[in-house]
Amino acid sequence: MPSTGLDPRLLLLSPDDNVVVVRQRLRAGDRVAVGGREVTLFGDVPLGHKLAFRPIGPGDKVLKYGAPIGSATAAIAQGEHVHVHNLQSDYTPTYTLDEARAKHGDAA
To answer: How far apart are CA 104 and CA 98, in angstroms?
Structure first.
C-alpha cells in the first residue's frame, strides 16, 4: 500500500473528493486500501465506477474532481461502491432510473 493509504487500483482525482475512481475492474471479495483503511468489497465494481474514499452521510454531496456530482441517498461506508443505487444526480432528472428500476428491478 502506498504511503497515501490508497490502493494503486484506485485514483483520487482531487484532494477534496470523497470518492475515488476504480482504475481496473474489482471483484467481490477483493481487499482494497481506501483512505488508509483496508476493506473487503461486497460486490463487483466495474472500471470507472466510484468507491467512497471516506464515509458519506445521507444527503451529503458526493465530490468528484473537487466538484459536487450529486447527493447520497443513503449512508455510504468507506470503500463502498457509489453508483445510482445510493447516489442521486442533482443535475439530471432521475425519472428514467426510476422507470428502469420499476421495469427491471433494483439491479442498477
So the answer is: 10
